[in-house]
Amino acid sequence: MSSVCLRHNDRETDIRCAACLRPICEECVVLGPGNSRFCSQECTDNAQKSSERFSEMTRRDQEAMQATRSAAFSRMVIWLLVLGVLGFILYVAWPHLPASLTSTVESWFEQARNLKLN
Ligand SMILES: [Zn+2]
Ligand SMILES: [Zn+2]
């Protein structure tokens, strides 16, 4: 379906402004970013601005996501370090711990092993 150009009543056209969707003829086309066709400089500027705003928004979103992700990652690394250090301390200190404590824990492990066997 073709319409008549915004500025030329006698010219039929299939081209529409990429911003305001008003019909325009070849002669009235204003080329914008990415070879999009607009009816006026104003529409080109508007489209440019909104696309800039959009990419700015996506950039900020990505940065925020990256920050969250790296924060989660560093939290995980800290936890792993803490667990590793605790494990190491336990491993080193184990023979020096009071026998009442170690034998209790060892008997738990013994029970667990027996449960699995049965
Ligand atoms: Zn327009
Ligand atoms: Zn025209």
Structure overview:
By secondary structure, the protein is mainly alpha-helical. It has one domain. The chain is built from two helices and four strands; from the N terminus they run ββββαα. It has a two-stranded antiparallel sheet. A two-stranded antiparallel ribbon has the order 3-4. The protein is rod-shaped. The termini are far apart. Bound molecules: zinc ion (ZN) (2 copies). One zinc ion binds next to loops.
Layout of helices and strands:
Elements: E1 3-4, E2 12-13, E3 30-31, E4 37-38, H1 41-93, H2 99-117
Antiparallel strand pairs: 1-2, 3-4
The structure holds zinc ion (2 copies).
One zinc ion (ZN) binds next to loops.
Task: Using brief descriptors, characterize the structure shown.
single chain; 118 residues; mainly alpha; two-stranded antiparallel ribbon; 2 helices; 4 strands; 61% helix; binds zinc ion
Provide a short characterization of the protein structure.
This protein is mostly helical.
Category from helices, strands and their pairing: mainly alpha
Largest sheet: 2 strands, antiparallel
Mean pLDDT: 91
Q: Rg from C-alpha positions?
A: 35 Å
The percent range for strand residues is: 5-15%
Q: What ligand species are in this complex?
A: zinc ion
What spatial form do the alpha-carbon principal axes imply?
rod-shaped
- Give the helix tally: 2
